[in-house]
Amino acid sequence: MRNFDFSPLYRSAIGFDRMANILDSLNRAEQNQPSYPPYNIELTGEDKYRITMAVAGFDRSEINIEVNQNHLTVSANKGTEEQARTYLHQGIAARSFERRFQLADHVQVQSANYENGLLHIDLQRIIPEAMKPRSIPIGNSAAQDKLTQVTSSVAANAEAGGNTVAA
C-alpha cells in the first residue's frame, strides 16, 4: 500500500483544507478498513448508485443502517446463541460488523432491500434547484433600449408621412 504525503497540498492550497483532510482520512481508512462483509458499489443511472453487501446469515432485524450527515453506516450484531455451537469447521463468517461509507454532498439514501442474503442500498444525488446551473438571458442596456425606442418611433412616423423631431 502506498502512503501519500499531503503536506505540500496543505502548504500551497488555501481554502482546500477540507478536501485534503478527506483525502488524508481516506488514505488512513484504507489501511485499517476490514474486508468483511464484501460489497459492490455500482452506478445504476445518472446520479443513481447502489451499494450491495453480502450479509448472508444475518436476519433483517440484526442489520442497522444509519445516515448521519454525509456518513452512511451499516452494522450488524450477531446474537450470542451462535457462540454456543461447537463447529468442526466454520467457513461461513457470522460475526458482527460495521462498515462506513463517506457520501458526497447531496447524496441521499432512497431505499434499502434485503433479499437472498444481499443487502441493497439505493442512493441518489439530488442537487437543489439553487445549485443547478441556469442560463442567464442577455438583455439590452438602458441606453440601448432608449435608442431602440427612438429608432422605432422615427420609422413609424416616416411610414405615416409625418415630420418628427428627435431630441
From TrEMBL:
Pfam families (alphabetical): HSP20
Ranges of residues in domain SHSP: 30-141
InterPro entries, sorted: A-crystallin/Hsp20_dom, ACD_IbpA/B, HSP20-like_chaperone
Keywords associated with the record: Stress response
UniProt entry tagged with the keyword Secreted: no
Domain of life of the native organism: Bacteria
Family from the record: Belongs to the small heat shock protein (HSP20) family.
PANTHER family: PTHR47062, SMALL HEAT SHOCK PROTEIN IBPA
Stated name of the protein: Heat-shock protein Hsp20
Native species: Cellvibrio zantedeschiae
